[in-house]
Amino acid sequence: MKITFFTHSTCMLEIHKNFLLIDPFFSENPILEKRTLLSNKYIQSFERIDYILLTHAHYDHVCDVEFFAKKFNSLIISNYEISNFFNKKGLKTYGINYGSFISFPFGKLKYVWASHSSSFNDGTYGGNPGGFLLHTDKGNIYLSGDTSLTYEMNLIPKFGNLKISILPIGGIYTMDVEEAIIASNFLQCDKILGVHYDTFESIKIDRKKAKEKFLDKKKQLFLLEMGESICI
């Protein structure tokens, strides 16, 4: 399984030649040059996007969904309300909610609890925010979405061991670094990919200190540069 980080919470997962784009946030991203999406060198490199996974409806997670879904004929997977929102725009969607695992060609996917909020920029209700628990024969991964620290995270490893977890670490709107370390204990997962930091002034972090804090607990925090990948 290959994980490529782009910006904010936007990542691409490659599993058995299936490409899953997570929470696309390019066009309105303040740290990226204001240019057309098609001129972005990373987007130009995308050969295809089979699935788009959306954790909640905030603009910094969904602003480019229509662009990618139309360009690549992707299947959007999200909660019932977000899926309906995009289905009404003529896009392919698969609506889910907190419940059982659902099988896809890339593995099994489960929508799980996140403690946050969820609404579109126009005020449309975005349903319950969530994260995704993904089980594959290449290993299991937890994408928490935007969330505070929650005791429900203790349930995640009961379904199977995790190879890596993707957690927000910027604070203010989500967990910060210290809380993400506690979350990793709940998850019984010592490899964390940090997201949702440095994009806005309010969520700036000290990257060196963040890595040191994880290392002090004998854990590894990955803070990837734009376009950088790891394989698990």
The gist of it:
The protein is 19% helix and 29% strand.
Which architecture does the CATH hierarchy give at level 2?
4-Layer Sandwich
Assembly type: single chain
Q: How many domains in all?
A: 1
Percent of residues in helices: 10-25%
- Mean pLDDT rating: 96
CATH superfamily: Ribonuclease Z/Hydroxyacylglutathione hydrolase-like
Task: State which percent range the strand residues make up.
Answer: 25-35%
| Strands side by side in the biggest sheet | 6-5-4-3-2-1-14
Task: Report the total helices.
Answer: 6
Secondary-structure element pattern, one letter each: EEEHEHHEHEEEEEEHEHEE
Low-confidence stretches: none
Descriptive keywords:
232 residues, alpha/beta, Metallo-beta-lactamase, Chain A, seven-stranded mixed beta sheet
